[in-house]
Design a protein that fits this description.
single chain, 218 residues, alpha/beta, 4-stranded mixed β-sheet, 3-stranded mixed β-sheet
Length: 218
């Protein structure tokens, strides 16, 4: 129950920072609905355009799953063939019936947005395991949730975690209380780097910033 409460808390927090995706580009968005021809990796500006187009879809899918009482996080990415991968991370293993219900809920939301099912690939995975696919990520909610739980387990008390994608990199901002020292900042930095590596992402694409700006009211 504790893990689920933490997971649910992070689920709510993750959508408070959805507005942090800034510097959207205006390049036209193209995707291969039926083609399996590999595409070159999108530039960061192109990724921002994908985020701009699909962030509301992701929010609506997350809300729909929450209304169905599924404890989940939704991420998305661009596959080499241009399709959008929708990744649902679950804290527990689900049976085939639950998997089917989740997929049907997602497809219903896609239809409500007047989008074509063929343009998407649905992937369900464990929250605690890296994704196996080759998609270029547009969000990292599963990574942030794992980092959030790791910091809770190591008793970092009050803190916040935000992440955003800019035209240059993926920026992670971790804010600690002001009485924390530099040694703890370095520990948190290392914990964030380890979490990114555990999910098999290239650490060079991330900028991690650890601050101490939260005032402790205790």
């Amino acid at each position: 129950m504790f893990i689920k409460r933490i997971f649910t808390l992070w689920f709510l927090l993750s959508f408070l920072v959805c507005g942090a995706f800034v510097f959207f580009a205006n390049a036209p968005i193209q995707y291969a609905e039926k083609s399996n021809v590999p595409m070159s990796r999108p530039s960061n500006n192109e990724l921002l355009s994908y985020i701009q187009q699909y962030q509301f879809l992701i929010s609506d899918i997350s809300n729909a799953l929450r209304k169905e009482s599924y404890h989940s996080l939704v991420d998305y990415g661009v596959l080499p063939n241009g399709k959008i991968e929708l990744l649902v991370s679950l804290p527990d293993k689900v049976d085939n019936m639950t998997k089917q219900n989740i997929e049907e809920t997602m497809l219903a939301v896609i239809k409500e947005h007047d989008l074509h099912q063929i343009s998407f690939q649905l992937t369900l995975k464990s929250l605690y395991e890296p994704s196996d696919t080759l998609s270029t990520r547009l969000s990292y909610n599963d990574v942030m949730a794992n980092l959030f739980e790791a910091m809770i387990e190591q008793n970092y008390d009050t803190f916040s975690i935000d992440h955003s994608i800019t035209s240059e990199n993926i920026h992670i901002l971790i804010n600690l209380t002001e009485e924390k020292n530099e040694a703890l900042q370095k520990q948190v930095q290392q914990l964030a780097e380890d979490t990114i590596r555990e999910h098999h992402f290239d650490l060079q694409r991330f900028t991690i910033e650890v601050q101490r700006n939260i005032k402790n009211t205790n």
